[in-house]
Amino acid sequence: MLTVDMMGLQGDDWKENKDTLLEAAAKAGVKVYIPSEFGTNHEITNYAHNATFAPKGHHFHEAVAKLPKVVGIYTSLVMEQTFIKWLGFDNDKEVWEIVGKGDVPVSITAKKDVGRFTVEAAIMAFHTPEKVPEKCQIHTVTYTLQQYADILDKYSETGNKLKLQGKTLEEAKENWENIKDTIPIGMVSPHH
Amino acid sequence: MSSSTATATAPAVAVIGHKGYIGSMVLPIAFEALQQKRIKELRILSRKFDANALKGLIAQGATTQNASYNNLASLTQALTGIDVLISTHIVWGPVVDGRYDGLAGR
Predict the structure, then answer these.
(1) Spelled out in words, what is the top-level CATH class assigned to the domain B3-89?
(2) B83, A16: Cβ pair inside 8 Å?
(3) CA angle A137, B82, A58 (to 5 degrees)
(4) How far is A150 from chain B (nearest CA, A)?
(5) Average pLDDT value for chain A
(6) Residue A139, number of CB atoms within 10 A of its CB
(7) A113 to chain B nearest CA, in Å?
(8) With a CB-CB cutoff of 8 Å, which residues 66-95 of chain B face chain A?
(9) Does B105 touch chain A (CB under 8 A)?
(10) Closest in A38, A51, A127 to B95, CB measured
(11) Which end of chain A has fewer CB atoms surrounding its CB within 10 Å, N or C?
(12) How much is the pTM?
């Protein structure tokens, strides 16, 4: 089952609610704000204007204009939900459908590191705001997909090796163009 | 630094969205920091008052505050005294004909 956290801030109300949050934070004297960025910094990808991600960027810039210190934390994919069928990694069939040959480094972040970095950045930004960048890119490990596959192969219960099936970037882009309008706004990941 | 000194200079932290995906990663570490007195208050903001759901958080030392997220006065009151706000609510929309349409003025 695919679910997303959309509590009260989606749809037509999102801007009013988010603006209200920023105004309230400013009035209350909040010194440091960590908005719900996480994931990928899509202002440096081709998806800055994607329906799912654009509002996050918009809110970030609004926050920077209104509050003393804003820290955006970008985690790339969360490790525990990266190698899953929903993203093309079919571990039951022992086949990963990927883009390219699997030789490009990919960073991922473990759940515990997401939590720990967020809290530590929050405390540090309070004490020494000048030492914490406005945008923080973090990761737990960086390997190529082939290297991740090699690591998982060591623990394979069947003894088989994962098979990486690569699409070209052009094929992947064409596939994206074909399916993107079928993906509901906000469906960025399955939670479980 | 002694614990009393640490508490005096430690920030009060509020978390919005504690039950969500990212919130569940942040909260355990925030409680650690609270116990270490590196956070002087951990305030959980919630739209609905659910005594049972909040009981466990309060038992661990958190404070809780109800807030209506579309009401400025309510949110301002809920955030009064807070130094650091961590929001784990995802932002979507608005959507026009199935597409995002909200970057005017950016």
Answers:
(1) alpha beta
(2) no
(3) 45
(4) 28
(5) 85
(6) 18
(7) 8
(8) 69-72, 75-76, 78-95
(9) no
(10) A51
(11) N
(12) 0.83
Q: Residue B81 and residue B14: Cα distance in Å, rounded?
A: 10
End-to-end Cα distance, chain A: 8
| Res B54: pLDDT | 85
How much is the ipTM here? 0.84
Provide CATH code, domain A12-182: 3.40.50.720
The domain locations on chain A are 12-182
Per-residue pLDDT of A73-90, as tens digits, reads 999 889 998 999 888 899
Under DSSP, is residue B70 helix (H, G, I), strand (E, B) or coil? coil
User: Which of A14-18, A36-40, A109-113, B82-86 is least confident?
Assistant: A14-18
Interface probe with B: pick from A3, A15, A21, most Cβ of B within 10 Å: A21
Which tokens belong to B11?
């920030």
Interface size A-B, in CB pairs within 8 Å, comes to 184
Residue given tokens 């509050």 in the structure block: A67
